Amino acid sequence: xxxxxxxxxxxxxxxxxxxxxxxxxxxxxxxxxxxxxxxxxxxxxxxxxxxxxxxxxxxxxxxxxxxxxxxxxxxxxxxxxxxxxxxxxxxxxxxxxxxxxxxxxxxxxxxxxxxxxxxxxxxxxxxxxxxxxxxxxxxxxxxxxxxxxxxxxxxxxxxxxxxxxxxxxxxxxxxxxxxxx
Length: 181
Prior knowledge:
By secondary structure, this protein is mainly β.
């Protein structure tokens, strides 16, 4: 009866093991290697976002707000050589319509910055600006500065909100306030 069972030769087992071992060894490191070279999306943050009263009237009340915006591409310490560089971004600045006039902003300045448009949406006056250049991880844009006319000089807080976005980045959101006395 022993002669009816097929015999497995030791050389066949060893040869089979040699053929399968390289496939396992070559395939194992591939996912870790692929992950280490992928580019992480940029992470945007406001480095500067403030507003202050300006162009005072005869009663000493501001008739406009001067706003400054600077956007940073946050540095990824865990991915120092593979974080995304930002080439173009858009910043939306929103003033409540009860606080800002429909006039376009004036005195717009800042290298790389361009005023695009103004619109009214959801109870806000929305100003759109774009920036073009190159922001490597850890760097920031030049400061955008502009002036927006106020619709009222009465006492109270004036608050704006802002969003910075780019196609290869996580958005930044922030707000700034100024109190008219």
